[in-house]
Protein: Alpha-galactosidase
Amino acid sequence: MNMCVRLLWRATVTSIVLFVGLASAEAQVTSSIHADEITLKSRLLTIDYHTQTGRMDAEWHDGQRLKGIESAVQLADGRELATSAYTTHTLESHMALSGKDGVTEFTIVSRAEGKPPLLQHVRIAADKPWFSVQLELDAAASAVGTRHINAVRLAGDDAVTVKPGASLRVLHVPFDNDMWFRYDSEPVQGLTAGKDFTSSEVTAVYDNASRAGFVLGSIDHDVWKTAIDVRVDSGKIRGLDIYGGIALPTGVRTDTHDTLPHGVVSGRRVTSPRVLIGSFADWRDGLETYGAVNAAVHPSLHWAGPVPMGWNSWAAYADKIDYDRYLGAAAYVHDTLLPQGFGKGRVVYINLDAFWSRLDAVQLADAVATIKAMRAPDGTRFEPGIYWTPFAYWSDNLDAIVEGTHGKYRYRDILLKAPDGSLLPKVDGGRPIDPTHPGEIERIRFTMQQFAQMGFQYLKIDFLSHGALEGKHYDPAVQTGIEAYNKGMQEIAKAADRRIFLSLSIAPLFPSGYGNARRLSCDTKGHIDGDQSTEYMLNSLTYGWWTSGNLYIADPDHVVLGENADLGARNVTEGRSRLLSAIISGGMILDSSRLADDPQGRELARQVYDNPRLFAVASEGKVFRPIEGDTGDRAAAAFVRKTSSGYYLALFNYDAKNAKTIDVPLERIDPSLRTVSGAALTDVASGEGMPSVHGTIAISLSAGESKLIEVRPQR
Structure:
């Protein structure tokens, strides 16, 4: 049960200390008031709220610090309000929240004559290195509304302090995975003065050498698209702004693809996104913590079965898929690849992608029955999968009847519109559908029921960002694109009822909890470098690995082998690197080679997938994380994860023409390895031992080659 205490403290009080009752003295969160300062304190963190300025400073036990934090809002009537412009700031309540982290919420109210009060809700975990801030408007200001609300804003020469001598970087996280957007970790020294460096939902500010830094990001995703703007001058961070309501410029090729401003949010109670602010000795731990906190707020859509393996038709055949090719690919997986270990002991999904309508109703029903009848002696079974775009319409026939609505609605009725009633422009060639329209809701329920009745067990849903666009929604209670997206995805998840595996393809990173898996990146094929390549996908793993397990199963997209498939791997070396990239992403592996009729693709698949040792690692379903975070918009070359006896180390040479030696100091794998005498190495793919190393692992890789190494410390 929550414990709530209402208090009214004035700055005239000389000193009051409140101890919030928790399990032990070590885990207490305290608050105290002095003449012009409110202090909130946990074991790892101290927040000093300056009642003369309306700003707060946060300092951690390791000396890292953020100074001058305020909250602000731009009301829809043009007024701009900021806590720093108010005259009194009062700590008015605290609430000990239930939960294992011992979180306490404090509410500080800012008041000034002629201005609506601003309420800042500050939550502190008893024994965690993070806190959160949320701004709330009073009833009068909430009725006016806003499309830009700053939960956290700070500025100044010493606003951000990491470690002495730190060479800071800042991370750009894309809103979604469309249009081959990339994550980008840029050195602060190289950023343009006066120009904002932006990120969506979350960022990390850190020193790669020491790995120390901050993680800052939104942890609720019901209403707002959250942006982070970083301002730099003279090689230093001078400003940081985290706000709900991603701003102009807009356009279909911008991060959110919006052509309209963020919706105005109004009502009885308007709040900003809740923003987590954490200081961490290792920025990677910080992002994993951020993911876990998000999962606690909105749990992931758990899948009880193993991580999927199988085949997908897109890169192999695209619009040339047909009945014979679909079943021919399935037969090759069953007869040739499965005995080698591909999918052994799992469910093997044979998935139709776009253009599955090239199979007529009789062919589709027969194909589904044939797939379901496939079995292996070890119990491996086969299941069919299919594809759908619930929020995008691909025809220019706007008078077509919406399926499942019994003729009540035409597509022109359910398409998302601008406030003047005009249709929004196409994105990726598809017109956005309004997820809140009753015709669209009926369409979702009908289509999902059809897929279930036909026997499909896997559904790839694509172009979901169309459903998060800003517009004039049918449901008047829905004011923003994210609210609409939540409503539509709730319908899909409810209809799937955890019986159909939901794989989100092109989709916003947040909100999560509606898909079992989400693609790490946009379309990825088989080349080692270039567009749609292994390197491109691993850029998303380098800075987005933390989504795996916390938010979704990470989907590395299909493994494409053979030059007759779209950008398929051209040789065994390149193909094995693409396979390893999928294994270290958590082990979800969907081939998309021309297995029905391409001799080169079939032979490459036979050679690439003939490795039970690698599949054993994949079957563990565990993601690797990067060793370095200084790669800009490129992928890291080295990834690592712990094992029961040491570590797995994955190395990649992204150069398709030249050999390369990759050096990894043992202490960069884990600081505890500074004290070991050396390490024994094993090539996982071959099972063969390699020379032991002392201090640094140096591995030579041929052009396009990768290697998975087991590292066992010697003490």
Notes: The first strand starts at residue 3 and ends at 6. The chain has a mean pLDDT of 94. The chain has three domains: 3-297, 309-623, 637-714. The CA atoms of residues 5 and 234 lie 46 Å apart.
